[in-house]
C-alpha cells in the first residue's frame, strides 16, 4: 500500500468488543501489511482520534513493511461512548486486548501518546507476552509532579474545553499544546471543533467520568519494573500538559528504557517533530 492510497476512509473498520457487561463498537484504522504490527493509541483531547493524532507517522511505518493499527478508544471519534468510573488506562487496555484478539495478532508493538501511553503501560502489565516494543510520548504513569502544580495548565484547559466546547477555548488549549503554533491553521481548528461537536455524547460522558472518578489514570510507578519490553520514551521539553519529570520517572522505573527529549517541543512530539520522530521509531523497532 502506497502513501497515495492511505486515507482515513479507506482504512476505516469496526469491531465489537465485550468487556464484562459492556458491549462496545470500536472503530479502528487498518493500514498496510506486514509480519509485524504497530498499534497507535491516541491522547484524551476533545475531538481526538487515532488518525488525527498520527497522520504524520503512518506512511513511513507502512512503507517500511509494518501493519499499522490505529484504535479509537471508547469515548472518542467513531467508537462507542462510555462513562468510565474506574481506570481509563485499564479500560483502554482491555479494549485493545479485545481488538488484537479479534485480529488474531499474537504480539504487537505499541506507540502511545499521552492517554495512549498510560493505556500502553496498562496493556503491557496485563499482557506482557503480547507486547513487542513500546514507544511512549507524554504519558505512561499518572503520578503527580513534584515540580509542576497539578493539574497542569494544559490539563485545566483540556477539561475546560470539554465543559465549554467553543472555538476560543479550543484555540487556548491548542496554543499551549504545541511549542510552535505556526502550523495551527484555521482549517485544523475548525476540523477539530467539528469532530468534537459531532459527538457531544463523548464530551458529556467525559465530564461525567471526571465527576465519578477525578483520577482516570492511575500511577503505575510501583509496577514499572515488571515491564521487560524495550521501551523508547520520547518527551517535549516544553510539554505543558504532562511535565518532563514524568518521562524521567518512566526512565527510572522501566528496566529496558531509553529517553529522547526534543527541545522546542510541546505535548505532540510525533506531530511537531514528525520526520525525526519517524526515523527514531523505525530505527528503534528494527534494531
UniProtKB/TrEMBL annotation:
Catalytic class of the enzyme: hydrolase
Keywords: Aromatic hydrocarbons catabolism, Hydrolase
Reactions catalysed, as given in the entry: (2Z,4E,7E)-2-hydroxy-6-oxonona-2,4,7-trienedioate + H2O = (2Z)-2-hydroxypenta-2,4-dienoate + fumarate + H(+); (2Z,4E)-2-hydroxy-6-oxonona-2,4-dienedioate + H2O = (2Z)-2-hydroxypenta-2,4-dienoate + succinate + H(+)
EC number annotated for this UniProt entry: 3.7.1.14
InterPro entries: AB_hydrolase_1, MhpC_alpha/beta_hydrolase
Taxonomic superkingdom: Bacteria
One Pfam match: Abhydrolase_1
Site feature (Catalytic role in ketonization of the dienol substrate (substrate destabilization)) residues: 192
Site (Transition state stabilizer): 114
Active site: 267
Assembly and interaction partners: Homodimer.
Role, per record: Catalyzes the cleavage of the C5-C6 bond of 2-hydroxy-6-oxononadienedioate and 2-hydroxy-6-oxononatrienedioate, a dienol ring fission product of the bacterial meta-cleavage pathway for degradation of phenylpropionic acid.
Protein name: 2-hydroxy-6-oxononadienedioate/2-hydroxy-6-oxononatrienedioate hydrolase
Gene (UniProt): mhpC
Amino acid at each position: 500500500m502506497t502513501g497515495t492510497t492511505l486515507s482515513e476512509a479507506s482504512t476505516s473498520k469496526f469491531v465489537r468488543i465485550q468487556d464484562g457487561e459492556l458491549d462496545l463498537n470500536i472503530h479502528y484504522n487498518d493500514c498496510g501489511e506486514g509480519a509485524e504490527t504497530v498499534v497507535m493509541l491516541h491522547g484524551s483531547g476533545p475531538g481526538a482520534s487515532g488518525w488525527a493524532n498520527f497522520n504524520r507517522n503512518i506512511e513511513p511505518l507502512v512503507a517500511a513493511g509494518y501493519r499499522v493499527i490505529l484504535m479509537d478508544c471508547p469515548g472518542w471519534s467513531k467508537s462507542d461512548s462510555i462513562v468510565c468510573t474506574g481506570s481509563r488506562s485499564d479500560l483502554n487496555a482491555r479494549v485493545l486486548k479485545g481488538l488484537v484478539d479479534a485480529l488474531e495478532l499474537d504480539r504487537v508493538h505499541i506507540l502511545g501518546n499521552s492517554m495512549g501511553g498510560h493505556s500502553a503501560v496498562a496493556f503491557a502489565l496485563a499482557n506482557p507476552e503480547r507486547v513487542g516494543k513500546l514507544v511512549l510520548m507524554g504519558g505512561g504513569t499518572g503520578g503527580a509532579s513534584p515540580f509542576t502544580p497539578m493539574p497542569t495548565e494544559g490539563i485545566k484547559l483540556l477539561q475546560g474545553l470539554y465543559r465549554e466546547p467553543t472555538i476560543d477555548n479550543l484555540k487556548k488549549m491548542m496554543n499551549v499544546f504545541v511549542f510552535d503554533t505556526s502550523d495551527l491553521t484555521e482549517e485544523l481548528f475548525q476540523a477539530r471543533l467539528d469532530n468534537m461537536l459531532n459527538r457531544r455524547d463523548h464530551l458529556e460522558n467525559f465530564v461525567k467520568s471526571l465527576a465519578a472518578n477525578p483520577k482516570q489514570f492511575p500511577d503505575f510507578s510501583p509496577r514499572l519494573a515488571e515491564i521487560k519490553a524495550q521501551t523508547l520514551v520520547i518527551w517535549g521539553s516544553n510539554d505543558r500538559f504532562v511535565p518532563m519529570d514524568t518521562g524521567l520517572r518512566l526512565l527510572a522505573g522501566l528496566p529496558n528504557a531509553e529517553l529522547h527529549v526534543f527541545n522546542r517541543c510541546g505535548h505532540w512530539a510525533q506531530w511537531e517533530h514528525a520526520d525525526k520522530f519517524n526515523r527514531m521509531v523505525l530505527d528503534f523497532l528494527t534494531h
